[in-house]
């Protein structure tokens, strides 16, 4: 089962309340504003700041383009 794109439209970053982008390759939701990547486990996004990893500057730039 793939991650639901419709769900992505209504989800927001819990830190900045901004939009999230889906990273299929790493199974994560990306917040460039907060510079965080939230994991998706068993098709369920884990939108907890303490579970997220920090994005590198290169990763943030990649998602801005």
Structure, described:
By secondary structure, the chain is an alpha+beta fold. It has a single domain, classed as N-terminal domain of TfIIb (Single Sheet), CATH 2.20.25. It is built from two helices and five strands. It has helices spanning 5-10, 57-64; strands spanning 21-23, 28-31, 36-41, 44-45, 53-54. Strands 1, 2, 3, 4 and 5 form a five-stranded antiparallel sheet that branches. Strand 3 (36-41) and strand 4 (44-45) form a beta hairpin. It is globular and about 25 Å long. The N and C termini lie far apart (28 Å). This is UPF0434 protein CWC19_11410.
Features:
65 residues; alpha+beta; N-terminal domain of TfIIb; 5-stranded antiparallel β-sheet; 5 strands; 22% helix; 26% strand; globular; UPF0434 protein CWC19_11410; Trm112-like
């Amino acid at each position: 089962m793939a991650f639901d794109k419709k769900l992505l439209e209504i989800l927001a970053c819990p830190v900045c309340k901004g939009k999230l982008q889906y990273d299929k390759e790493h199974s994560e939701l990306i917040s460039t504003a907060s510079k965080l990547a939230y994991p998706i486990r068993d098709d369920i996004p884990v939108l907890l700041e303490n579970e997220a990893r920090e994005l590198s500057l290169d990763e943030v730039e990649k998602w801005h383009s």
